[in-house]
Amino acid sequence: GLFMCVCMCVGNRDACLHAGFCASVPQPPTITHQSPKDYIIDPRENIIIHCEAKGKPHPSFSWTRNGTHFDAEKDSKVIMKPNSGTLVIDISGEKVEAYEGVYQCIARNEHGSALSNNIVIRQSRSPLWSKERIEPITVQRGMSLVLQCRPPAGLPPPIIFWMDNNFQRLPQNSRVSQALNGDLYFSNVLMDDNRNDYICYARFPHTQTIQQKQPITVNVLDSKYSPSGERAPTFMQPPGMHSTSMVLKGDTLQLECIADGLPTPDISWSKVNGDLPSGRFSFHSFQKTLKITEVTDADGGDYRCLARNRLGSNHHIITVVVRAAPFWISAPQNLILAPKESGMLTCRADGNPKPTVTWSVNGIPIENSHKDPSRKIENGNIILSDVQTGSSAVYQCNASNEYGYLLGNAFVSVLAEPPRVLTPPNHVYSVITNSRALLDCFASNIHQNLYIIHKNNTLEINVARPVHSGKYTCIASNSLGNKENHVYLEVKEPTRILRQPEYKVVQRNGMAEFECKVKHDPTLFPSMIWLKDNMELPDDSRFEVGSDSLTIHDVREDDEGNYTCIRNTTLDQDSASAMLTVVEATPTPPIIMEQPDPPRDLELTDQREHSVRLTWTPGDENNSPIQLFLIQYEDSLHEPGVWVNMTEVSGTSTTAHLELSPYVYYSFRVLALNEVGLSEPSAPSRQYRTNPAQPEVNPSDVEVIGTSPDSVTITWRELTGLESNGPGLQYKVSWRQKDVDQQWTSLSLANVSQYVVTGTPTFTPYEVTVQAVNEYGPGPSPEVVLGYSGEDLPTVAPENVKVYVQNWTLAEVSWDAVPLSTVQGRLNGYKVSYWKLRSLHKQDPEPKKPQELIFQGNETEGLLFGLHPYSQYNLNIRAFNGKGDGPTSSNQIFETPEGVPGPPADLKVENLNLDSLIVKWAPPVEHNGHLTGYLLKYQPINTTDKLGPLKELLLAANETSITLDNLKHSTRYKFYLNAKTVKGAGPTVTEEGVTIMDEAPPVGRMFGSVNSSVEEDHAVISWEYSGPDRNVYVEYVVDNSKEPWKTEFVNGTRTYQIRGLKPGMSYRVRVVAKDHSDATVHSTEELLITVPAMTSKQVDIATQGWFIGLMCAIALLILVLLIVCFIKRNKGGKYPVKEKEDAHQDPEIQPMKEDDGTFGEYSDTEDHKPLKGSRTPSNGTVKKDDSDDSLVDYGEGGDGQFNEDGSFIGQYSGKKEKDTAEGNESSEAPSPVNAMNSFV
């Protein structure tokens, strides 16, 4: 046949753009690619800011940064790609901060300017953890604990996790878990939590760096008097009873509840006045976190998290507020107009709060742009009328609120172009029968169901048949002219392999032959290709390819494999494969069973209103008989792409009668099953559509829920598309008040699953039905469902409330039930609130938090446990239903009697002297009545299990200490103390004490010698000590200082190094031994040490060899000079004794003695006299040698005093004494340093 195709380009944007028409006509710029709005960059890599656009002519690009022009050409680090607006910024050697900011790209040509989004460039940051010193945390067993992480703020925020020193994740469970802020929460602490390696790590994902917090040490104390007993839950995070959370629409909401309690509480979640969103919520972190994805407005409201253990429960309400960043309802679309035509640009956006919409033209606010008489703004839309050539422009719509913005570009192109057809003239399209045919043009006058018109003006024939072959004409026209084009369609027969190659088992050196006969369209000429294992055949003359076969001569082992025949035409192809197995021996090869081949040639016959017969041809069984056929169907109308099992038939059948549902677009396929398995599915049958009918079922799961005192909510499960049986599906909802002569009220609804009936009486029964109805009639008669309208709060408080005190911790309470008519709902029970007003013994610092007991149903009495003795309590009762609590009863005040007191506080034992101890304590924190006294017991204990005799003392109530005398010295005692009231004795506290030794040794007796070695900044102290080593300390203080002594413990050694001493300072040091009460019992004498005043490491010149040699040489030179001077002095001296010496004729100058280096002034062969330079014995006498001569020999008188010449005696004796003194002073050799000082 002849078909006419008309392409109207003007006013139809898609008809031109998708056909490629506008590729050669003017077009304003359009942004095609840009970087995200929030662009976090890696400071180690170059910054690449994308901006691509198209237009005719190709647009030029410019940028702004922080609202001002950014000249990329003036910065050598910035490159703009050719024919693009993309910026590449080389930040090597540069500070990234210099390029941070808000960037915007402008693409412009002569027809307008398009703008990109504002692109915020920020560098990723992974700051170091601030230095801190974390003190160990001490906590009682059973108490709650929070370990804070507080990581440094990074960009983007870091991912938090906790590990130990071995880089193993810390185990988490319902008791220990990580909060959303990264802190580690303990609902209660166990002894196993005692460790020193709680380490918080922060991983910064953008830079892939990990920062570590200092390890946290947790010390868990186990004390049976600690306040860590079992307790009802309270909330650690979030605190209090109520909190608020804000989330943006479309984001993910995370709500968190972490509870303290012992045993560990269980957490559950619910939504107040609603259900959690089906399919979008999940629980994490052991039920402590509720996560809701893709948040909608309906997700706003109150969420309740309930913490419960066996001691009670507590709840927290989180109010979720849903806000929304702007989102498009209708974004502005490009317009292509002819001169004198009109058009409209719409920009509809929504958000919460409502976004503000503004327009710009070519990047300039519309109110500041040039006035255009053909343009006006109405209701946020731009109305264009009677447009003129040259008025093309790009319009920008900006919708923004406090949570974000949207920027949409839409151009208005005013064109005056004659039509053009881009398809080549007389083009021939060839397709295979039953395949799809696409003809490129717009067919405005073809309205049959077999044809589909695409937006790009292509004509599609979904299933081409031979009758569709022929000539098609496309005519394009507008006010400037017409254009006509002809194309031809030829529908060919498909290519099919009729005789496929079969599985072959061939003996070695035999021959194998595979057939491959094909049926094809006579106008097509198929070629044949053979493959072995999906590869080309070997280049071997043994392989012979015929027109319809493959023959392999002289078969070898390496010929074994899979052989595939492919028959190709220019339009289609078909292929088939077979295996070749090569065997050695002649026995029959084993049978190889495989899953069957898929059935083929599906046909639909005997077509009726709600049934059809399906027939098929089985595939090859592959050596295993087919057991059954599985028939599946696809409903392309309601669930396209989903195949559903429909029925099964025996393996010997090749047909099946199928019962069908109304208003379904069926396609069928068949699978075969043998002992090996299911075959691949067959090709689908042609589509079979059934006619619509009225529904056969009604909605299920109908429920009637009272959500408020004056409304009823009716919910149901909607029908599936298969169950609808026809178009126009609606639900007829009917309701009436039960047991009242009232007509049914009905309402029809579509595409909903609930309806709210308002204006109902409180908690009143209603009968409800929901019936399915479509355009072809109603469904079956629906079932009646009973429900109630919403509850309201009870209006009456319980009366006749009475309290019966059973003992000091237990009381019984009773009350009269409230009338059911006042409950205004289902009576869930009663809540008894009671709290301690005060202690009858003392004024409590603050009132206690009320406790609450819940009694279910119609109970009117109960027990109050855990009361404090000797206290005054207040109590009231209220009824509650599903809506909430009613009014409370009048308060009832009752008192508990006295009980046994609590344990005495602060029990201490102190040494007094050798045989006495002082026991001190404080009164109990909880008296629980009037104290009548204390019972003190004590007995000696030793290192064995044997205990000494137990003694008891009754003490007055006002006593808080006692001195015990006549105890055994050096003995450990154990003390037991109870407080008492008239009700008896309270818990016992114990303490131990030791009497000191009966005889203390004198101070310092245990210590021997003490030595010290002083270096530049430390001193080494060593000592001898015969006492016990466990309490030895070294104490030191700056000399002449009033500072306290510094004490350092010695760990069982006899040597200790004192570090940190200041050079040039003197210190007093002592070693002491102390007893268990820290009193000094032994001490050494104080030792004074001085630290050398050396400010730096210097070489001691006095220890150098060259310096010692130099000093020796100088000393020897000085000695020689002294000898020479001395000799000359003796020879030339003028004093009276000289004459006497000359008269004797035997004096001679004594040589220097080699043994001590001294001089002798006078000498006689038998007489040695102590002269100058000689060493005089300490007793003042001169030791004689063998001679008895003396100075008498030199005189004339026998007494040897030279009385005739007094001057000699005076001068000689005086000089002898002087020389003796000088000899003594110089008797020790001088050090090199002293020698140098003397020389100088």
UniProtKB/TrEMBL annotation:
UniProt name for this protein: Neuronal cell adhesion molecule a
Biased segments, Polar residues type: 682-693, 1223-1240
Taxonomic lineage of the native organism: Eukaryota, Metazoa, Chordata, Craniata, Vertebrata
Membrane topology designation: Single-pass type I membrane protein
Organism: Cyprinus carpio carpio
Domain Ig-like: start-end pairs: 29-116, 127-217, 233-323, 326-413, 494-581
MF annotations from Gene Ontology: cell-cell adhesion mediator activity
Keyword Methyltransferase in record: no
Biased composition, class Basic and acidic residues, residue ranges: 1136-1156
Domain annotation Fibronectin type-III: ranges: 598-693, 698-792, 797-899, 903-999, 1001-1093
